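We both want to read discrete structure tokens more fluently, so let's practise on a single case. Once you have written the record down, we can walk along the chain together.
***
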Amino acid sequence: MSSPREPFTTAAPDASGRGPCARPARRARRCPSGGAGLAPGLAHGAHFEGAEPGRNNDTINVANTALLPFEGEVLALWEGGSAYRVAPDSLETLGLKNWGEGLAHMPFSAHPLPERDGSYWNFGFAPYAGAGGTLVIYRFRPGAGMEAVTPLPLPFPGYLHDFAQTDRHLLFLVPPYRYDPAAGRTFVDRFRWEPETGSRLLVLDKDDLTRRQVFELPAGFVFHFGHAALKGRELRLQLCWYDSPALMASGMTSLVAHGQTVSPTHARASTVVADLGSGRAALETSGTVLEFPGFDERADPAAALLYGAGKAGVAGERPVDTVAAWNPATGAVDEYRYSYGVQAEEPLFVPDDSAKPGRGWLLQTYLDCNAGFTGLNVFDAAAVGAGPLASATMARALPLGFHGTFLPA
């Protein structure tokens, strides 16, 4: 998924000492004349007349989706190509991340998952490889680099953006939004909605990735996942469920063209319950509109709250305007709603020093369209509805984005 926004992050004060700086990653694109620079061309979801075909995945790499602190640097991540290395203090782009021989330009998702031993899992989605598309699983570690790369076949080439994990499994939701190279000119245009196929939940064994279970689910679409918990043979997975891929199919184009998107579907906080013994799974949806989910990694995933950005007045044109804490066990929601004209972004959970699960803060950036500035609010994660504990604003407006990261001082 790509956005008109660059991968901005806040870091140390700039050279003037007047506060945080922000900078987009500099990506290499070849001009039609052969010179260096940024030139119009084929992109992830846009096409320009006269554009030259891309040479590899990184030709259209926008590096604008998420950020991962890694080995003293920050990786600016997309999903269809390489990560870009960024200096954490100056935000200078240092170049493409090279994971080793044969891995250049490989798809590498924007949502790596940390393992308890300090390593990371990630995946690459290659719908154009193999009969039904290929899922590439990566295992990498600070100080050791890439430790394992495992390609696996998909049941069909349904769009993948994120995944989840338990201590024993990696979890993927394959929606019936299928890749068809003849369906369009751009990567996004080449997906077709086939709801009659239904969705599939893939449960992969971490100890042997070739061992997997596949569960049938209703047709739907997912960008982001929350936590997952395994108790006995019952697996419970939290996610943000769309009834259709309308936001990706047309909403992003509308956002770029008109500055806003009108989507007939919104993500709802939901739970997939899968019985590993019987091989059956069911979807439980709530009425809570939620996206960009996050949670406290220290908490028991069976009882942890899910934090996210929500939306009031779903039937109207009101933008995402709420920060919410959703309790999957009870359905209770603790939320703070911004005034009309303020668009809320992804809230980040930052734990405190108590080591007590659920204790910490939520950091949420927002765009005040009325006054024309970007702000940051800090909430008590245990009392979101009480409003911000602290706020900061900029004398400018930054474009809306997807995911951020927190770098401690």
Remarks:
- The CA atoms of residues 334 and 383 lie 7 Å apart.
